[in-house]
Amino acid sequence: MYSRHRFPGEIISYCVWLYYTFPLSYRD
User: Fold this and answer.
1) Would you list the DSSP string of 1-28?
2) Virtual CA dihedral for 3, 9, 12, 17, nearest 10 degrees?
3) Going by C-beta distance under 8 Å and a sequence separation of 6 or more, which residues neighbour residue 11?
4) From CA 28, how far away is CA 21, in angstroms rounded?
5) How confident is the model over 16-27, as pLDDT tens digits?
6) What percent of the chain has pLDDT over 90?
7) Any idea what DSSP says for residue 2?
8) Distance CA 15, CA 20 (A)
9) d(Cα 16, Cα 9) in Å, to the nearest integer?
10) How far apart are CA 11 and CA 28, in angstroms?
11) pTM of the prediction?
12) How large is the average pLDDT for residues 1-28?
């Protein structure tokens, strides 16, 4: 299924990157 997309690896690590790049800006 995921021959084109490395979903479990790249997407999650990208989401984690975004999560720590924009950490508490909206929580305050």
Assistant:
1) --SS--IIIIIHHHHHHHHHHS-STTT-
2) -120
3) 5
4) 15
5) 988 888 876 666
6) 4
7) -
8) 9
9) 11
10) 26
11) 0.42
12) 76
